[in-house]
Amino acid sequence: MTTLLSQVMGAMGKQDLLYKGLKKYFGFDTFKGNQEAIISSILSGNDTFVLMPTGGGKSLCYQLPALLMKGTAIIISPLIALMKNQVDAMRNYSEEDGIAHFLNSSLNKQEIEEVKKDILSGKTKMLYVAPESLTKMENVEFLRNVPISFYAVDEAHCISEWGHDFRPEYRRIRPIISEISARPIIALTATATPKVQHDIQKNLGMNDAAVFKSSFNRPNLYYEVRPKTEQIDREIIKYILSQGKKSGIVYCLSRKKVDDFAEILQANNIRALPYHAGMDAATRSFNQDAFLMEKADVIVATIAFGMGIDKPDVRYVIHYDIPKSLEGYYQETGRAGRDGGEGRCIAFYSEKDLQKLERFMQGKPVSEQEIGKQLLLETAAYAETSVCRRRMLLHYFGEDYNETNCEHCDNCLNPKKKVEAKELLITVLEGIIALKEKQKADYLIDFLIGKESSDIETYGHNELEEFGSGSDEEADTWETVIRQAMLDNYLKKDIENYGILKITKKGKEFLKNPVSFKITKDDEDEDDITSLESEDSEMLGAAAGSGGAADPVLFSMMKDLRKKLSKKLNVPPYVIFQPSSLEAMATSYPITLEELQNIPGVGAGKAKRYGKEFIDLIHKHVEENDIIRPEDLRVKTVANKSKLKVSIVQAIDRKVALDDLAESKGIDFNEMLSEVEAIVYSGTKINIDYFLNEVMDQEVLQDIYTYFKEEETDNLDKAQEELPDYTDTEIRLVRIKFFSDMAN
């Protein structure tokens, strides 16, 4: 009885200590979610695994026990930015600056000595270290003499190859900890699938850890995916300007894109700064602080590096490029609305982004490539789905979301029509059984539609009765069925085997007793293209990607004007202005020649030659309809691109061979042709006759030239169909000459 009483008193004392510490150090009266239980677990000396979404209060789970326990807590973090941010925050909570320090490559020798002095004096309760710094022998030797309270491994998903930000150095943490001194470990992550969680616990040797999982659902976040088109810069600028002084983050795939796009935003009077690992530490730190102190409204950052900052009032997160995994996407979007307020998450998606990410994986070990491809497929599925995005995200992290409509994503706000697909699911399940549950989704789809691939023939699966059983449906439909079947728990992916499809218990019951199963299907009759002329078909191609012109009435009027001018000048309509240029005009309403020159595909020459009638038409339309123009959305051309084009024009004037010019600029010949096409399409006249006469027969040149003169479109695919005897390069070269002669 006495023992039980002392245990109860001990528990009450610990709880009292927790709440006093919470109030004293952080000014809060209550804990959020699992925080109290997690902290109690650490104070009891247990290894502890914490899976808590961004914004859930992970940091406090190790900061408070570090302040309450004897010794120094070692916090292992991958981001210098995150360390600085958290150390600054902890110093604000305390009267003593030495209470928290970081040890990383940004410090000089004198600063490192000061940090060590504070630690040895007992002032420092938290030491933030990068995994690379932890593994340095001099630091290991030093930490052996320090009384350590516990180790916290932040961003623990970096341990797993299946995590979105795998860091090999993280796999060395356990052996180093054993070398320093064995103390309890708390591993924390905001994003981990069941597979990643298993990897983390196994690698850190904490399989018996107390596990605390919080819901991944962030009900205040709105999710939307938009098609990525040539108008993306304009679309993002327009959105950011509509948000006033609200804080936002734009994620880009490369450092170069970060620098370029930050410059474009600045040119459009947006207080934006770049942030990536390639910048020097002082600039990176300055930009981060400017964002935190609201001297900048927008940070443009790389996906690969991440931000590592804790700003509660980020109101929107825009992905310029789709990330390489759903974990990465979830973590980055999680930086929005951390205070529980509004948070809009808009991602721009194109298949080209995925192809680019796949190319980045080339040269890596085969197993790493396979993992990377699976992660990309999950991202593509999320981007392309028409079901609730929240449901898909939560399902990915092993959490069920059973609401029929979350009312906070683009798919739920604009639901697609649902159709019965019970028979299709039966076909899928029978196909998986026929393949003995040993194949992935893409193989199954090829099998169902009857595609004679080399793998299918090698395994003899083309001889099976089920081969081609789904040939009356498109591959896209089967992808939708498989995706929905996984969401409804009829199927699951065996992650250990790179995504092999397995039938669940529920799926087996469905086969015995089929019930209603519905999938969303896009309307096939949204656009009737059969009545369009050839030039309209080209326009539809542009509009399908970009969402069409903002003002279809003006677009139609400008198309009529273009046709009238083409007859008068005896040139094809596309020579005057490309359909994509008309579409841009119908979006931004240029009413001066200067504004017209900023339209893609329109330069000074073309604006002077053809522009007046168009800007008169636009001006009249704007006045008659009281249209408010987005005249501030002028997208400045990035300087280095302009320099490249200028140097190409100058080289052509000197009659430098185009293949030699490409080599000197470090680009391939096709890229060179694209640059030259952009130059002539924007209205600059050039003369490449010297090069054509050297590489092409006059008869070939004349034949292709005549084709473009008589044709209603300059579409390359159509030209290749009509001119099968000539190469793609020959056609492009003559098209450049024709355009320069006729349009400029």
In short:
This protein has 744 residues and is an alpha/beta fold. It folds into 5 domains: 2-213, P-loop containing nucleotide triphosphate hydrolases (Rossmann fold); 221-384, P-loop containing nucleotide triphosphate hydrolases (Rossmann fold), CATH 3.40.50.300; 417-521, Arc Repressor Mutant, subunit A (Orthogonal Bundle); 529-624, HRDC domain (DNA polymerase, domain 1, Orthogonal Bundle); 639-743, Arc Repressor Mutant, subunit A, CATH 1.10.10. Helix 13 (326-333) links the parallel strand 12 and strand 13.
| Strand portion | 5-15%
Which structural class matches the secondary elements? Answer: alpha/beta
> Quick one: CATH superfamily of the largest domain?
P-loop containing nucleotide triphosphate hydrolases
- Give the biggest sheet: 7 strands, parallel
Q: Give the oligomeric state.
A: single chain
| The top level CATH class name of the largest domain | Alpha Beta
Percent helix range: 40-55%
- Spatial ordering of strands, largest sheet: 3-4-2-5-6-1-7
| Low-confidence blocks of residues | 1-9, 523-548
Distance between the termini: 98 Å
Number of helices: 35
Task: Work out the radius of gyration.
Answer: 30 Å
- Give me the count of strands: 17
CATH architecture term of the largest domain: 3-Layer(aba) Sandwich
Shape: globular
The number of domains = 5
Please, what is the average pLDDT?
A: 82
The CATH topology label of the largest domain is Rossmann fold
